[in-house]
Amino acid sequence: MLLAESDAVEWALVVEFLVGGALGFGVVWVITRNARRVARQNASELVEVAKREAAVAAQEVKQRADEEISEKRAETNREFDRREIEMDVKLREIRAHEESLALLDYQLEQRQERLTREGVAIKQARDAMRDLSRSLRKRLEGVAHMDAEDIKKQLRDEVMLESQDELRALRREMLERSEQEVQSQAKRILIAAMQRLASQPNNDITATIVHLPSEEMKGRIIGREGRNIKAFEASTGVTLLIDESPQMVLISSFDPVRREVARVALDSLVKDGRIHPASIEDFVKRAQEEIELHTTEAGEAAVAKLNINGLHPEIIKLLGKLKYRFSYTQNMLDHSIEVGFLASMLASEVGLDPNIAKRAGLLHDIGKSVDGEYEGSHATVGAEFIKRYGETPIVVNAVASHHEEVKPETIYAGLVILADTISAARPGARAESMTNYLQRLDRLEKLAFNLEGVQQAFAIQAGREIRVVVKPEVVTDEKARELAKTLRRRIEEELQYPSTIKITVIREQRFTETAT
Fold this sequence. Notes:
CATH superfamily of the domain at 315-425: Hypothetical protein af1432
Structural class: mainly alpha
Shape: flat
């Protein structure tokens, strides 16, 4: 019984152990299962996180790779462009070398041709020298029987005969070439100056006629027993001509300034209506002051127009008086301004100081406004006047020599002479009477007829050209050339003319036969 109880206890213990083991195993299995499930969930979450991080890293790697690829592509493109530019440069250099080689080839061909021609010429010269040596040997053989003087004379005659034609041709060629070059240069400079200055023809003259409001005014101007007109003439230094012309009075005087003073004074008297000796003296004085003011303003305007500085006030005042002086209807002040501009342009063209030329050109005719008590021509009187007021010797000489009464000492004097001629000779500058025009043409033709061998002479182109027909049996070609030069010198010395005169000498022979 005790054994049976012990066995039962053992079996109970075994059963308890088995039950406890089973319960522990179940608990452990449940815990393990739950831990495995939690671990599986954590693992899946970690995988998802790892996948996301891997995707981000892959995206970053891809972006860096794309950037590197773009940079490499851009660098490759730049390198390609650089290589392409270098290739273009190389191609251009190659083309330039090809062109230079072609040019060198052409030059070599030309040089070869020139060497060939020179070789032929040398051969011909060598043959000529041999012929000359043979002829000289023959001459020497003949000369051996002559004395020294005969040999010298014969050689001199032969050299003169052989070289005369060559010297004449060389002289003619040199003269023609020098004349053509000088004329071409002169034409270029003159055309450049004339194109830069375009002046209008000036036909204005100072008015010497005063219009009256009525015929009754003539009696008031004359006054009782002529007292008013005598007082007016004594105050102004002019002559009043009152005739039967209706409502018109003529002022006569050789002095244009006095004539202008008289005109202004008479206009003022007529407008005022009070005409008697006292009022005449008053109005004449006012007119003189007004004209003096106008002359000063005109001189200052001319100086300002040419932009000249440092002129003495007396010179400016005297320059303004040229406003009332005319030469063949050309106003002297306008002419002086024009000469100043032309001289300045010509000086600029030949590389001289335009300010000096401008100053001399403006003052060249100032002597025409100097009072009559000074002796001498207007050129010398004007030169002395401006010299007294401090002008430089260059300007003084240019003024004194612009009509070549005094020798020009500088090139500026020649520029003033040329500018004065251009201004006076331009179309419309100065009028000329028909009588003077015909006389000038007649003198021009007579100068040509006075030369030996002249058959006919015709002045054409308004006296700007003369055509001379010579006798061919008397005048040779060389003499005809010399005759043209002789006629040119005579025209320059004996005639006064505007602009230039072209001389054409014609020598021709005609042979006529009639077949019957």
